[in-house]
């Protein structure tokens, strides 16, 4: 009996459940600073999440699957054993599904990137031996996991201190905000340009030289600055308000910046994490439907990405509140200005790391930047118990996902092999 369709159907179910967990954890983490600071309403957050997650996945997520297929282990050694590869990818899907949903239930932010790398290492080690694992690549990724939260934390700390020094400690914070907000808007525009415009251009095979890159970045940054200022000008003002109320007015300005930065982060999440999470499913689909063709991004249909997007959005809307509470309010209290500093620092770190070829986790990067912003207010502003739990979950993700994959592969191979 041919079990190919059964394998594919099982992969579809597991992939949806895994992406549901990614939405409840990874995407919730990305949106946590925006929602925790109350910069936007729940309805606005839903619109941003749905639109930019889909846009990022379809415009920027074409080549990420290659990392899952041959970036961690030498899967070419299994080219003549497609059934082993299918069983392994089912094990990877099951392990990541269990881990991501368990973390979401506990309310701790973990990275699907870490879980997938751990799962692939476990699968490669048990089937092909440890020599089949690309340890140099794995160590390169692991270094990014360690350095990115540190860099984002330092950047977030410096950015929030600059906001404090230039705006909040001044005698006329409202006037200073009007002076410096365009500068921060321009920075947001530059980050948005790198994350969205260039991802979209690459999707359409449009490659620019350095001068063209700078011209596009400049034009995008200026456009976003103008759009942001138009939104800010719509915020009602009262020149006779008291000093304390002026701070509230300034925070309303930063809420606009926060919303725009959130769009960039969600787009980046869609372009990287959605394509990554459907990687195992796309491999199984390729082996089942295109068994006589070499695997490639062109060999799997758009509905696989669509399935991933739907799963992520459903998970975020139905069960994202726990992770949002952990990162958005439990680590440290966030206002729109603090959340803006944290999110822009994380987005900048992701952009710089991606452009230099260093793989990073958006989840860990954002948590690191939130820690940096909290530290700018003193160690007492941080909830050390929550931070300890988050770090523990990060450390456990790699070995836990690896062991879960080994166990699930053994069971699948025993019953189906």
Features:
single chain, 417 residues, 0% strand
Description:
This protein has one domain. The protein has 15 helices and no strands. It has helices at residues 4-36, 42-60, 65-70, 82-106, 112-128, 135-168, 173-203, 210-233, 243-277, 279-289, 302-319, 321-330, 336-355, 362-375, 384-416. Helix 7 crosses helix 8 (210-233). The longest helix has 35 residues, at 243-277. The chain is elongated, with a radius of gyration of 22 Å. This is Phosphate transporter. It comes from Legionella israelensis.
Question: Which SSEs are present, and which pair or pack?
Answer:
Blueprint: H1 4-36, H2 42-60, H3 65-70, H4 82-106, H5 112-128, H6 135-168, H7 173-203, H8 210-233, H9 243-277, H10 279-289, H11 302-319, H12 321-330, H13 336-355, H14 362-375, H15 384-416
Helix pairs in contact: 1-4, 1-9, 1-10, 1-11, 1-12, 1-13, 1-14, 2-7, 2-9, 2-11, 4-5, 4-10, 4-15, 5-15, 6-13, 6-14, 7-8, 7-9, 7-13, 9-11, 9-13, 13-14
GO molecular function: phosphate transmembrane transporter activity
Main location: membrane
Keywords: Membrane, Phosphate transport, Transmembrane, Transmembrane helix, Transport
